[in-house]
Specification:
Oligomer: single chain
Radius of gyration: 24 Å
Strand content: 25-35%
Largest sheet: 5 strands, mixed
CATH architecture: 3-Layer(aba) Sandwich
CATH class: Alpha Beta
Distance between the termini: 49 Å
Shape: elongated
Number of strands: 7
Number of domains: 1
Helix content: 25-40%
Length: 196
């Protein structure tokens, strides 16, 4: 039986399509993760969060707060990059370790972007019934804000992107910066790759 010449490319495409790599589990952020030159990857988020948290805990700034553990309100972190991702990925990784370290509590019921509106409403209701003001109930020591920016460059067909993660802890009583940290992640290449 003869196969028509037009059917050969179709048969080859079907055969090659079946040879793709099977999905497998890898360590999140590990050495087999995909590295994207023009995007923020999970390993960038993990390294930035870890580097910033280590710096904050090492300074001892939280241990000098009026309340122990220190009360921290997480405000906005602006993503000013072309890579679209949830900045909460950085903050939640820091929050988990921050709260579990015993050095801080995160006030999720405070501010205009309160994470728990139900808790905020209940605390306000109780304060009203007890004749207290909102500042009596909500008394944070610090606010945490930040920004993520990028610088892109190209030389021939080689692309390079530097992502800068910045966080600042502001003392709520003085309005002054109590701690700040910048972490840079630079990636270079002609195309995305697996592993680093």
């Amino acid at each position: 039986m003869r196969i028509p010449l037009l059917a050969l490319p179709l048969a080859a495409a079907i055969a090659l399509g079946g040879c793709g790599q099977k999905a497998t589990y890898i360590e999140t952020g590990g050495t087999q993760s995909i590295v994207s030159v023009g995007e923020v990857d999970i390993q960038d988020i993990q390294k930035a969060a870890s580097g910033m948290l280590d710096s904050m805990l090492a300074t001892g700034v939280l241990r000098r707060a009026q309340h122990q553990p220190a009360r921290v309100v997480i405000d906005r972190v602006v993503n000013d990059t072309s890579s679209r991702f949830d900045t909460g990925e950085v903050l939640y990784r820091m929050r988990e370790q921050l709260v579990n370290s015993g050095q801080a509590e995160v006030e999720t019921a405070y501010g205009s972007n309160a994470e728990s509106q139900v808790a905020q409403d209940e605390l306000k209701r109780r304060a009203f019934l007890e004749g207290k003001t909102a500042s009596d109930v909500f008394d944070p020591d610090f606010t945490l804000t930040g920004k993520i920016t990028q610088i892109k460059r190209r030389a021939g067909n080689v692309r390079q992107t530097t992502y800068t993660f910045r966080l600042t802890l502001t003392n709520m009583r003085t309005g002054r910066e109590a701690w700040t940290k910048t972490v840079d992640m630079t990636k270079q290449g002609t195309k995305n790759s697996v592993g680093f």
